[in-house]
Amino acid sequence: MHHREAFSAPTAALFVAIAVVPTAHAHASLVDRFLSSDGALLTGIVGLLIVQTALIVVLMVQNHRQRQAQDDTKRQQSEVAHAARLVLVGEITASIAHEVNQPLSAILSNADAAEILLSATPPPLDEIRQILDDIRRDDLRAHEIVRNLRKLLTKREVQMESVDLNEIARTALLLIKADAARRGIAVTTKLDGDLPHVQGDPVHLQQVLLNLIVNAMDSMSEVPADDRRLEIATRRRDTRSIEVSVIDSGAGVKASELSRLFDSFYTTKPQGMGLGLSIARAIVQTHGGNIWAQSNGARGAAFTFTIPMAA
Amino acid sequence: MTMAMTTMERGFKVHVVDDDDSFRTGLTRVLNASGLHAIGYRCAGEFLLSDAASSPGCVVLDVSMPGPSGIELMDALSLRESAPPVIFVTGCTDVQTSVHAMKSGAVDFLTKPVRTDTLLDRVKRAIDLDRERRNARQEVRELRERYESLTSREQSVFLGVIAGALNKQLAVELDTCERTIKTHRARMMTKLRAASLADLVRIARVLGIAPAETLIADEVA
């Protein structure tokens, strides 16, 4: 798309030159012509109008092409981001299945319990009512997970809306909870309760955070089971932005790796594609924020991204 | 749905250890509604701190929990002789976890969502197993007490008899007369509450006592 743009700019310049030169020439004797003949004047004005119109058309076409190119780039970016999101969800599928199974299993047990209790004489109606309440709550809980999952799986371009970053953190936690438990990782959160909303795309921001969390969990596979800790924190960085951090007690990041970490196709994982962090960076930058990593030597790493507050 | 439990399950408790409130509540509810006595525990620690770890019953244990996992709890339990049988429950069908769980001594493995019929069936089986194990341990304890109440002479006679030695041979071996052996033998049988040679052999097997080799060797020689 870009190369076509490169051709069209000189073409337009040429067009303008061809149009302007005769006009300029005409300009020199404009007064004469004005005096000499009405016909000539008319010809001059019509000529000018044609040139102007042509110029406007050229600029409009150019503008349109440019916008189309931008749209294409955006679409390509969101397609890559979507593909990465599918991979990410794939990595935490077991965790998600577990989180859906939990309430479903509870619903089944509760329904069976209610049925047994109904045949008692007299049936304990208060308890049965409580059971029905629990069934309803568990149904909503399963629904919530499925809803979040569907959002992550849907292809979408960046759509800005008012976002609560604490909510993003809580949802991420919900999705990876079982995975963390299975890997024996103790997860803690430090969420600033008084966090203003930001303008952002909730799905893409969710993707960034999930990516950092999955990376953090992967980095702890060699760490002794008692030492696997993960912290998710949100806070105001300054008056202009909010920061979200994922801190792990994993293998840490080598100083030589720090600068290349966010490059495409750079990975330290045996099965990694090296896309996650570069996409995370692209998403954060689209939001006008920053993302970086800090190493705590052998005691883990901290990944932080900032999102500007809504003005 | 299933029938209420029989009196056979009385006195046996089902301990449900799972960090998920909904799941734990649902499971204990359906077990209680079915006539069992179920108690829920939020984590492995809460269960270990209670006296439940050695009381009659069975444990329904979630494999993956924050803090000590179900498998770690299982490993801790398997060191105790009187630990109740463990049924593992897992949300994922992770082969590795299943294998590890069965190897660590779990009697069963259920996947979520848990069907009530299956759950009740497995729980009953586990309780039966616990009863059998308890009875067996009780028997061993009683027999050991009886065996230890024997004098060293009577113990020697016991070892000789189960090895197939005749009174006459025993008298030679123990350097005494046949009548004394007969008296020892009678007292030994009474103390062990054994009526026949077959009873004695069974007692020896339960206590893990091998027949006296020297006597057999003598006989062969």
TrEMBL record, chain A:
* Listed InterPro entries: HATPase_C_sf, HATPase_dom, His_kinase_dom, HisK_dim/P_dom, HisK_dim/P_sf, Sig_transdc_His_kin-like_C
Q: Name one GO molecular function term.
A: ATP binding
Which residues are listed as membrane-spanning? 42-61
- Give the SUPFAM superfamilies listed for this entry: ATPase domain of HSP90 chaperone/DNA topoisomerase II/histidine kinase (SSF55874), Homodimeric domain of signal transducing histidine kinase (SSF47384)
- Protein name per the record: histidine kinase
Keywords annotated in UniProt = ATP-binding, Kinase, Membrane, Nucleotide-binding, Phosphoprotein, Transferase, Transmembrane, Transmembrane helix, Two-component regulatory system
Enumerate the PROSITE patterns for this protein: HIS_KIN
Species for this entry: Povalibacter uvarum
On the tree of life, the source organism's domain of life is Bacteria
Annotated Histidine kinase domain ranges read: 95-311
Gene3D superfamilies with a match to the protein in the record: 1.10.287.130, Histidine kinase-like ATPase, C-terminal domain
- Catalytically driven reaction(s): ATP + protein L-histidine = ADP + protein N-phospho-L-histidine
Stated EC number for the protein is 2.7.13.3
